[in-house]
Amino acid sequence: MDRVAEPLPVTQPDAMLPRVARVTRRTRELPDTWTLEMVAADEAPLPRYAPGQFTMMYVFGVGEIPVSISGDASDTSRLVQTVRAVGKVSEALTKLSVGDTLGLRGPFGTAWPVADFYEHDVVVVAGGLGLAPLRPALYQLQAERRRFGKLMLLYGTRRPEDILFRSQLERWRRQLDMEIEVTVDHAGAGWRGHVGVVTKLIPRLAVDADNAKALVCGPEVMMRFAASALHDIGLPEPAIHLSLERNMKCAVGLCGHCQFAGGFVCKDGPVMRYDKVRCLLGLKEI
Ligand SMILES: Cc1cc2nc3c(=O)[nH]c(=O)nc-3n(C[C@H](O)[C@H](O)[C@H](O)COP(=O)(O)OP(=O)(O)OC[C@H]3O[C@@H](n4cnc5c(N)ncnc54)[C@H](O)[C@@H]3O)c2cc1C
Ligand code: FES
Looking at the CA of 245, which ligand is closest? Predict the structure, then answer.
């Protein structure tokens, strides 16, 4: 299979020019969250991407927003992205039908450095929709399973009915030789799993902490506590990787909307090492 390891350069010549894509499939994940599968409208090959990267999705006449890629990077036949309707553009994206067209720029940004994790235990911590940007990394971990030590996925959502990619989680639990722990903030009748925030699961992890690596994605407050808890059990700060979100416009480091200390989240992120961003987490504008 054609694997993709290297992120694309962010300054492609046509980085500001959307290419037209067509929706080939839409899947309702949750009442407000849909996964779109897309191909280039002219049937040309789509740009290759690395797990963790995002595109700028443009609904004609409505606007453009950054959305992470949630599909398998080794499948170059289609682009897969999962969108939650929170406002004007995201809602319009979730309402696109099969056959509708949209604009796509990218992919942009840094990747989850999964290939650097060979021989190490890997802990993946996801909160809510944060599982979507992590799914390409999970596909890569799955494809190269034998190269890693223990794999653990800790996933937290508000309620059992908010669990994303539920059937895939079940499949991975069976096939992937990966420990998967799901926790919810508010359990309903019939829930037999963990209750409480996902960070509470971290102190119980049985990993070779000095040598383990971690990928974390979710609401920023959750990432702050998760990274700190991972560090508390012994993971070195540079071994912890987070995916940050900021308002974006250009996505190529020109407009300054996503400025983050001395850099830009669109160009130097979204995936960043904890030791580089620890002091800045929680600050909306720098
Ligand atoms: C690198 C990156 C990757 C992203 N990946 C994804 C993804 O995979 N799937 C996805 O659905 N979204 C993702 N987002 C978030 C997405 O870009 C925003 O939800 C979107 O910009 C909101 O635009 P809008 O026009 O729909 O809403 P707006 O009209 O801009 O906002 C509507 C309301 O939603 C709130 N809001 C805005 N952004 C967010 C947010 N990120 N989370 C919660 N509330 C928000 C606003 O404060 C406002 O109250 C990503 C963002 C970044 C920077
Ligand atoms: S979005 Fe313009 S600099 Fe990052």
Answer: 1
Alpha-carbon gap, residue 285 to 198, rounded angstroms: 27
- The bound ligand whose nearest atom lies closest to the alpha carbon of 84 is 1
Tens of pLDDT along 107-141? Answer: 999 999 999 999 999 999 999 999 999 999 999 99
* Cα angle value 226/232/234 (rounded, 5°): 110
Give the ligand whose atoms come closest to the C-alpha of residue 10. Answer: 2
**What residues flank ligand 2, with Cβ below 6 Å?**
248-251, 253-258, 264, 266
269 lines ligand 1 (CB under 6 A): no
Judge whether residue 195 has pLDDT over 70: yes
Q: Which atom of ligand 2 is nearest to the CA of 267?
A: 4
Claim: this prediction has a pTM higher than 0.90:
yes
Query: How much distance in Å is there from the Cα of 49 to the middle of ligand 1?
Result: 21
Each domain of the chain, given as residue ranges in start order, spans 19-108, 114-243
Q: Where are the beta strands (DSSP E) in the chain?
A: 19-30, 33-40, 54-59, 63-68, 79-84, 101-108, 122-127, 151-157, 179-184, 194-195, 213-217, 240-243, 259-260, 263-264, 271-273
Q: What architecture is domain 114-243? A: 3-Layer(aba) Sandwich (3.40)
Task: Write out pLDDT tens, residues 49-60.
Answer: 999 999 999 999
Torsion of CA 228, 233, 234, 235, to 10 degrees: -50
CA 74 / ligand 1 centre spacing (Å): 26
Superfamily of the domain at 19-108: Translation factors (2.40.30.10)
Q: What is the dihedral of CA 124, 128, 134, 139, to 10 degrees?
A: 90
Report d(CA 33, CA 162) in Å as an integer.
10
φ, ψ (nearest 5 deg) of residue 136: -60, -35
What is the residue with the minimal CA distance to atom 3 of ligand 2? Answer: 253
Residue 83 Cβ inside 6 Å of ligand 1? The answer reads: yes
